[in-house]
Specification:
The protein has twelve helices and 20 strands. By secondary structure, it is an alpha/beta fold. It has two domains: 305 residues, Adenylosuccinate Synthetase, Chain A, domain 3 (Alpha-Beta Complex); 96 residues, Adenylosuccinate Synthetase, subunit A, domain 2 (Orthogonal Bundle). The strands form five sheets. A ten-stranded mixed β-sheet has the order 9-7-5-2-10-1-11-15-19-20, with helices on both faces. The longest helix is centred in the middle third of the chain and has 22 residues. The structure holds guanosine-5'-diphosphate (GDP), 6-O-phosphoryl inosine monophosphate and magnesium ion.
């Protein structure tokens, strides 16, 4: 049976948590493959609302095994507090598996993320300040600390000392901070080791065996396509690969096993942090989208920047991820507009451009060219089938599908598990 990838098609916060949770009932494993606790995935089950940062959204489905893959960066303190928060609410988290090859976010990398941003001043990325960038930098620089290092004190000590050698020079001489003592870091990390140990496993072996046994595995991306370090709006990106290829490198499951790639697509666009955003609104419409859509960051509490739907972005996501389906979310938020602008192409230096430009300079200069689609005023939150939607809402969805290059197989009409119109089955 198949492996499926579910990922963000825009700049994150498309509703991945809800979509993963919805599919959780039909899959055996839900696997995070990149990112860390920079993610903020909201899942609403009945009258209960959960905000997950590091744990896969499948953790809320008892039949499902949640997995943190090798491509994820794990802050052990956050992991334990997120587990405790769920346990306190009666959620059983004992099935969780964590790759021994996942890298650990250490306190010095959280510090470096924050002081690094401060140092950049007005050129800052607007990171979540969770230590994500410095931890991936250490991984690539081969001075990272992995989950498995927690179980060999001598290796852990050597690695922390090696990592801190250079960083303490930076902290003291460039950032004017006190040096960090390796012994204190090792001691703190060792405190977490025993509590994490029951979850640590060879997740690559387990997932490949599961697929061979006909089990269904769902890979859940954090962030979104345009925050990808290779394919996003660099440098205003996160430091990992949320795009579909990341599901393979971040779990050790080969691309031949993946049969479906589902892009989660918001019916309009949002972004948190700095960087270009052609359809961004600075007027009452932007305020209204933010208010009606509840567009406030789950991780940092920052207001999200809001704008109209951008078709070149959706087409780009289809292309770089090989999307087979879209899950369109938050259609209900657009109820009440007389007409809804949709960006169909850009004007760049006086020329019409149909696709996302590869040049960062061009993308910074891109102005949206809008088509105006007729709106609807009827409440759509109770719609169960496509036919239940008002004609203009149906036409809006069909127009987006036409422009985006992959079928829209589900539509979100509210935050709850059941507030979804399923058009084509995913599994
Ligand atoms: P994620 O990071 O992609 O998981 O998305 P977030 O959880 O950060 O943000 C999506 C927000 O939209 C959350 O508050 C969800 O509860 C909510 N949401 C998801 N789907 C829908 C939908 O179809 N309609 C409405 N109104 N809200 C939705
Ligand atoms: P989910 O999974 C939206 C953004 C940050 C910043 C940039 C780099 O909820 O969609 P980082 O801390 O990752 O180094 O910050 O990436 N960012 C997100 N924006 N949703 C997210 O996650 C994000 N995770 C990171 O705002 O612009
Ligand atoms: Mg989010």
């Amino acid at each position: 049976m198949p492996a499926l990838v579910l990922l963000g098609a825009q700049w994150g916060d498309e509703g991945k948590g809800k979509a993963t949770d919805l599919l959780g009932g039909s899959v055996d494993y839900v696997v995070r493959y990149q990112g860390g606790n920079n993610a903020g995935h909201t899942v609403v089950v009945g009258d209960q609302k959960y905000a997950l940062h590091l744990l896969p959204s499948g953790i809320l489905t008892p039949e499902c095994t949640p997995v943190i893959g090798n491509g994820v960066v794990v802050d052990p303190a956050v992991l334990l507090s997120e587990l405790k928060g769920l346990n306190d609410r009666g959620v059983d988290t004992s099935k969780l598996l964590i790759s021994g090859n996942a890298h650990l976010i250490t306190p010095y990398n959280v510090t470096l993320d924050k002081v690094g941003e401060r140092f950049l001043g007005k050129r800052k990325i607007g990171t979540t300040g969770r230590g994500i960038g410095p931890t991936y930098a250490d991984k690539i620089n081969r001075v990272g600390i992995r989950v498995q290092d927690l179980y060999d004190e001598s290796i852990l000590t050597q690695k922390v000392e090696a990592a801190l050698d250079g960083k303490n020079q930076l902290l003291a001489k460039l950032y004017n901070r006190r040096a960090i003592e390796a012994g204190a870091i090792v001691e703190e990390m060792l405190q977490y080791a025993e509590q994490i140990k029951p979850f640590v496993a060879d997740t690559t072996l387990i997932l490949n065996n599961a697929l061979d046994d006909g089990k269904v595995v769902l890979f859940e991306g954090g962030q979104g396509t345009l925050l990808d370090v290779d394919h996003g709006t660099y440098p205003f990106v996160t430091s990992s690969n949320p795009t579909a290829g990341g599901a393979c490198t971040g779990t050790g499951v080969g691309p031949t096993k993946i049969s479906r790639v589902i892009g989660i697509l918001k019916a309009y666009t949002t972004r948190v942090g700095a960087g270009p955003f052609p359809t961004e609104l600075f007027d009452q419409d932007g305020e209204d989208l933010r208010r009606i859509g509840g567009e406030r960051g789950v991780t940092t509490g920052r207001d999200r920047r809001c704008g109209w739907f951008d078709a070149p972005i959706a087409r780009y996501a289809t292309r770089v991820n090989g999307l087979t389906d879209f899950f369109l979310t938050k259609l209900d938020v657009l109820t009440g507009w007389e007409q809804i602008p949709v960006c169909v192409a850009y004007e760049i230096d006086g020329k019409r451009v149909e696709e996302l430009p590869y040049s960062q300079t061009d993308f910074h200069h891109a102005k949206p060219i809008y088509e105006y689609l007729p709106g609807w005023s009827e409440d759509i939150t109770k719609a169960k089938t496509f036919g239940d939607l008002p004609k203009n809402a149906q036409a809006y969805v069909k127009a987006l599908e036409e422009m985006s290059g992959a079928p829209i197989s589900a539509i979100g009409v509210g935050p709850g598990r059941t507030e979804t119109i399923e058009i084509n089955s995913f599994i």
